[in-house]
Amino acid sequence: MDKLSEILNIIYAALCDPSSKYFLGDEHGILGSGILGILYRTFTAPNFWCYFAAYLIAAIPFGLLIGRYLGGVDIKSEGSGSIGATNVLRVLKTRDPQKAKKLAILTVACDALKGILPILIARALGFDENVLWGMAVFAVLGHCFSPYLKFNGGKGIATGAGVLACFIPIELIIALAVWFVVGKTVKISSVASLAAALALVIASYVIHPQMPAINTHAPIFLIVFIVFYKHTPNIARLLKGEEKRVV
């Protein structure tokens, strides 16, 4: 019992008593500047929890849930296997075309909102633009690499559009116009999405040569890179002439 009390006293002194020889803190604060200190400061920083929340919320696979519970299908095992609105539409269209369109629109809305809402809440709480842009990137990462799906996920288009609407709405409108025109003309979802992503990058440089508050286009490049990376199989099929059209 005495030994246990001694151990507990040492632990207390190490964490809470700066006058003790066991204290682990220094000028950097409790737990010092080593790996424990870095972990401590990381997990107690509000910014970390903003990024973590953005990632986990955006990781919710709404397309899969909507397809399963409202459409009665498992879109992971049919069509392209993607959890996005395009696959919801593709899989359900053979069963009920009207219902397919409604559920695809619902999927787009949910995928966009799960990126938008955490950023708007953080903005209302007073977090600066650097943190908000970081949340945007983590939201797209969450959607594309969901821990709920063994780090698989969607293509990032709707969630990416949602988060970018919070910062560069004019550029997003231009990208959506390109997406619509290319989609109607080519009728290949991946081509429309990639064309829209490129249009957004170009428009962001034309309209905002220096991004307000953060003075860098790096978050936009990261989001677009993730989108292109997730479309790698589509690009391979396009080069082979095997990519499916959405009629």
Overview of the structural elements:
This protein is an all-alpha fold. The protein has twelve helices and no strands. The relative contact order is 0.09. The model has no long low-confidence stretch (mean pLDDT 86).
How is the topology of this model organized?
Elements: H1 2-16, H2 35-43, H3 46-58, H4 62-69, H5 85-93, H6 97-124, H7 129-144, H8 157-165, H9 169-186, H10 189-207, H11 218-230, H12 232-240
Helix pairs in contact: 3-6, 3-7, 4-6, 5-6, 6-7, 6-8, 7-8, 7-11, 9-10, 10-11
- What proportion of the residues form beta strands (DSSP E)? under 5%
Number of helices: 12
Radius of gyration: 23 Å
Number of strands: 0
Helix content: 55-70%
Q: Which outline best applies?
A: globular
Q: Which regions are unreliable across 5 or more consecutive residues at pLDDT < 50?
A: none
- The SSE string, one letter per element, is HHHHHHHHHHHH
Mean pLDDT: 86
Give the termini distance in whole angstroms. Answer: 75 Å
Structural class: mainly alpha
Question: Mind summarizing the main beta sheet?
Answer: none
